[in-house]
Every structure is written in structure tokens, then in C-alpha cells.
Amino acid sequence: MRELVAPRMDRPFPLWMIFPVIFAALYASHYTLLRLPYYWDEAGYYIPAAWDFFRTGSLIPTTTLSTSHPPLESVYLALWWRLSGFSVEVTREAVLLVAALGLLAVWRLAMRLTGVASVAFWTVALTGLYPVWFAQSTLAQADIFAAACALWGLVYALPERDGEGVPKAWAAALWFTAAALCKETAVAIPLTLAAVSAWKGIRARRWAPWRDALWLATPALPLAGWYVWFHAKTGWWFGNPQFFRYNAEATLQPVRIVAALGYRVLHLTAHMNLFVPVLMTLAALMLDPRKTKDGRERAPICKAGRGRMLLLLGMNAVLFSVLGGALLTRYLLPMYPLVLLLAVATFYKRVPWWPALAAFCAGAFVLGLQVNPPYRFAPEDNLEYARVVRMDQAGIAELKARYPDATVLTAWPVTDELTKPELGYVRKPWDVEAIDDFTAAEVAKAAGEPGKYSAALVFSTKYDPPWLPWRLGPKEEKLDERYFDLHHDLPPGAIAERLGGKLVWEQRKAGMWIALIRFERQYVAAGQAAGQAGRAGR
């Protein structure tokens, strides 16, 4: 069969034709997720921040933790709410547009680096199906915004097939600036590429690489301006002290950095069935390159392009081993398309019937969307997050039906779900009594103050796999507990017993659970008070 090879710049597949196809595919595949209430960090920070800007015009949030995250995402979401109304579905569709824009950048990048439409198609398909990207495609968090803009920056920053320069440094600088104003850590990508260009300028003693380096370094200037303005308004440079301590100061410990780097390498090579294309790529490298009809060796990605991509992968692994209190895989979102592009390009270069390998990888990713791996992970890495949201909805529905006037003992994020109607779970705020989690220590604290709550909505604050075959024993547990916030919630029955309550409802799904506890003492006391009031009235 004749290989379908596109001309140099996407023809005969112009971007205006490709984008609607990508968006339609995303919309259809995410349709059942578009009305889900907000989840986790989007509920805890990003939606409240955008909601504050929408209502007050303040770029610095007032109803949630004041961090130093740049505000471009908030401005974007507020614009859509102004045009179409404030609703969960509008938000999710607006995020889908950004995810589609990111996949369009993957297509353009693959075409620039390989010139082969089939390679571009499979890279886009695998990126869209990869569980972490798929899940983030409707979640209103900064990472998908930064990833889309950063990938467009790479379109204009990585060398094409026949050159080692920066194709359009000024265009790359604009996209990288947008990425940095969505999420500050995205500035590391252009700065890394700027350092490469500067090094080439030193070695070649030419002005052109230095000019490219200056362009690629410019995204740091608007970001610095944001920090100066933020400091002038709040007195803090990098968010409030609690935020900065958790995400920067507390992470600068050698043992933690080394352990985090190990996790990051696994995130970039194995997480959510990514090991399937990675292992296939390593196997394919043992094969001789295939030849074209004129006897030349297939080489879809030039050496300079591969080198910069591998450098960016390593840089991001190290960066997010040093920064970020939580080892969230979404921080690496712009890097997964690069891993997949390298894999698909290698298949194309070395393996006959290579689309079958790509299709097998796609099947592995679809499986990873629905089937949880046998290790701990964040539910937002696949469709587990949708199950958790629906469980929270079910628990809150039981709470409303059984105890509509209760003061509720619970933990974050359900505390926000019950007190912020704009998140989509309740119509009016509830009175809550918050604890950090449902470990033995936190439950003991709550048991010492029984008069503050009349019901408890308890849930698993961490994903706990039904079986956990891959672990290194007690030492790994202690390491994760010390550096990565691992803790173990008590089971709902034990929580009820220690709080002196009765377990009245429970739901379990795929390693997560949620339960409702009633406290008889509160209702007995309330009944006695009502009786005394009635006798006094007579």
C-alpha cells in the first residue's frame, strides 16, 4: 500500500478542516462528562478564582487560597461565562476547545517534524486517548491550558526535518508567553530551548542562534511582571506562605528529590499503560530502519529535533521532582505528546505494518481509562474522577434527604462542595465542621468535640487499590507518608464507632467509598429541647 505522505505544511489537510474533526471527536467522547460538577483542584482553586474575576474583576482570588498562579485561565473562563452564562457545561465545553487546540498543535508538530500524515494521525489519536490527557480535557485546571499553548510554542520552536534552527522564534515566544501566563512552570520549556540556542551561538560564533535565544527567553518577562504586580497587591512573591512552603520550600530535600525523580521517570514511561508504546519503541529500535523506494533510510525526525524533545522530557522530570508538593501527573501534560510522537515515528521508521502497533497502544489507553492500575494514583488521571464525583453527588443527595438541617462533619473537597453552590453540588450552603482527612488522629480530634456536628459525610480521601502487588514494603510506605502526603483513612464503620455514631448509608466503587453517619445524641438532645419548649408554651 502506498504511504500517505503530506506536503511540507499540512496540505491537503489544512488546519481549518482538521480542528472541527478533532473537536467533534472530543465532544462525542466526553459527552457524558460535560455536566459533572467541578472536582478536586478545579473546585478548590481554579473555578473559585475565575468566579471571583467574573464577579468582581479581581485577578487575585478572594474566596479561595491566594496563590501566585497567573490569571489567563480565569480571564478565558470568565469571557465564556459572560458570553454564554455561568454553568458547568459551558465551562467544560470551553475547556474542550482548549484541549482540541492542543491536539491540533500535536498534528502540526508531527507534520513539521515528520511530514507524514499517518504519523500525525496516530500521534493525535494516542494523545487524545491517553488517560491523563483524556481526563484533563474537560477539567478546568491550568495544566491543559498551559499544555495547549506550550505545544503550539514547540510547533514554531523545534527544528524542522532539514534544519537545526528555530523556524519562527517570535511566534514560539508568543505561544510560550501564553503558556506561562496560564501556569508559571511552563516558562521552563522556552528557557530550556533558549539555553540550547545560546549554546549553539557560543559554539558557532553566529548571531542567529543568539537572536532565537533572546526570543525564547522573552516569556519570562511578562511572567516576572505578573509576580511584581502580585507582590505589590499582596506582599507575597509566590503566593501565601502556606502555598509556597508546600510547593517549594518543603520539597527541597535530597531524599525527596531523588524519590520524586524516580516517580517522574515512571510517569513518563509507564503510567496508565504508557509502558505499552515505550516498550514497543525500545523493541523497535532493535530493528533495522526501513528503506524508501529510492533506497534511502527513513528518518522522519531529525537528530536535532529528537535531541531537544528528549532534553525537554528530562528537564520536566527534574523540574517537577523539585517543585510541586503533590506528584500530580498533569504537571507533565505537555510532555506526553512528545513521548507518543517519538514512539509513533519510531514505529513508522522501523516496523512493517506499524499502524497495528499504534492501534494496539490505543486499545491499551482505552483500557486504562476504565480499569485502574494496581498502584496508588490520583483519580483525575483517568475516569476514576467521574466515579468519585458521582459518589459525592450520591452522598450529598442522601444527606439532603435524611438530614436537611444537619451540621456536617467532613473533609475537603466535600467541605467546598457543601458550602459553595457555584460548584454544582448544592443550591444553598451547608454548615460544616471541617477536618483534614479521616485518619485515626483526625477522627480522634473530632470525637473530642461531639457538639459541633450532627451528621458526618465521610469518604476515602486517597485512592486505595483493592489489591496492591507492586510496592517495596514498609520503607516505601514510610517514604510516601513523610514526603508525599500518603495517609490511610479509617474504614467507615470504624469512624462511626469512634465518633459514637451509626452508619446509615454507604457506597463503594473501585477502591473508593463514601458513607453517611448519624449521631443519636444530637437528635435525642434536639427532641428533649423541643419537648421542653412545648411544655413551656402550655
Account of the protein in words:
With 538 residues, the chain is mainly alpha-helical. The protein folds into two domains: 15-381, no CATH class; 384-528, Rossmann fold. The chain has 23 helices and five strands. The chain has a five-stranded mixed β-sheet with strand order 2-1-3-5-4, with helices on both faces. A hairpin with a 2-residue loop joins β4 and β5 (512-518). α5 runs parallel beside α17 (354-370). The longest helix is centred in the first third of the chain and has 27 residues, at 88-114. The radius of gyration is 26 Å and the shape is globular. The N and C termini lie far apart (95 Å).
What topology does this entry show?
Blueprint: H1 15-29, H2 40-56, H3 72-84, H4 88-114, H5 117-129, H6 131-136, H7 142-157, H8 169-182, H9 188-204, H10 207-217, H11 220-234, H12 241-247, H13 254-269, H14 275-284, H15 303-322, H16 336-350, H17 354-370, H18 384-402, E1 407-411, H19 414-419, E2 431-435, H20 440-447, E3 455-459, H21 474-483, H22 492-499, E4 502-509, E5 512-518, H23 520-537
Parallel strand pairs: 1-2, 1-3
Antiparallel strand pairs: 3-5, 4-5
Helix pairs in contact: 1-4, 2-3, 3-4, 4-5, 4-7, 5-16, 5-17, 7-8, 8-10, 9-10, 9-15, 13-15, 14-16, 16-17
Count of discrete alpha- or pi-helical segments spanning 4 or more residues? 23
Unreliable spans are 1-10, 523-538
Radius of gyration: 26 Å
> How many independent structural domains?
2
Q: What shape does the CA trace take?
A: globular
User: How is the largest sheet built, in terms of strand order?
Assistant: 2-1-3-5-4
Mean pLDDT: 88
Portion in beta strands: 5-15%
Calculate the terminal CA-CA distance, rounded to whole Å: 95 Å
H/E order of the elements?
A: HHHHHHHHHHHHHHHHHHEHEHEHHEEH
Largest sheet: 5 strands, mixed
